[in-house]
Amino acid sequence: MKFIIPWNEIEISVTRSSGAGGQHVNRTNSAVQLRFSISKSLVLSDLQKQRVLKKLSHRLVQEDEILLRIEDERDQKSNKQKAYEYLNKLISDALIVPKKRIPTKPKKSSVQKRLDSKKKQSEIKRNRSEKIKW
Fold it and tell me: What is the separation of C-alpha 87 from the centre of its chain, rounded to a whole number of angstroms?
């Protein structure tokens, strides 16, 4: 399920990037910091909010906010778009409900195959030891 968060629920701030880049890095505010509050969101239902809070608990700051900082690209627009896409992917992935596994018994044929392969392997190893003894 692809989930898209509206721009008006996201707080964006820009800062200078760190690292190499010379004069360009020193003069431009190209790093983007994106902040999204899960509890204040109007597009997420209460159940979805709980699920996102639980799944993304390791990424949260101030109990319910996701903070992303992207400075991969040289321009602010690209970093902003990248951060927005990453946030939407994070939320979409957190909302996926995994299918419950139904435990099953192995089929008789697969059990027989496994036992046959074990017998074959033991036969190979036994033959190796007989060859060495002579």
Answer: 11
Which pLDDT tens digit goes with each residue over 13-32? 888 777 666 666 666 677 88
99: enclosing H helix or E strand: none
Do 10 and 43 touch, CB atoms closer than 8 A? Answer: no
- CATH code of the region 7-94: 3.30.160.20
DSSP string of 48-74? HHHHHHHHTGGGEETTTEEEEEE--SS
The whole model's pTM is what? 0.68
C-alpha count within 13 angstroms, C-beta hemisphere, residue 103: 0
Residues 40-81 pLDDT 10s? 888 888 888 888 888 888 878 888 888 888 887 778 888 889
The residue extents of the domains of the chain are 7-94, 108-134
